[in-house]
Design a protein that fits this description.
The protein has 118 residues and is mostly beta strands. Helix content is 10%, strand content 32%. A hairpin with a 2-residue loop joins strand 3 (15-18) and strand 4 (21-24).
Length: 118
Amino acid sequence: MRAVETTEFGPGENQVEVNGVRFASHDKVRLKLGHRRCDVIDEVFNGRVATVEKIYRDYDDKVYLGVTLDDDPAQDMQRDLARYLYFFPDEVEPLQAPSSHGNTGSYGDADDEWSNAA
């Protein structure tokens, strides 16, 4: 993989649009695995909420999202060491962020851990 540009935080892109869906650093996403391949690790990660840390493109112009899992107690360490899990954009689902205009909204389903975010 290669980073197509260098940001103030190192190599990688800050945002990208794939098939009409915009992904940006620090966005929350839900992992939706199993349609491309399926193994035990996919089952463990499927449905978990993650934060997009870096966005990369390879030499064939494929986009990879480097994420850290939000419920991982070592998330900060993984971020500091740049030890990300990599997924294609079609393997994640962007979660709706709260509006900056005072409307609280939610980060996804009403029963998930982000529904009470303010």
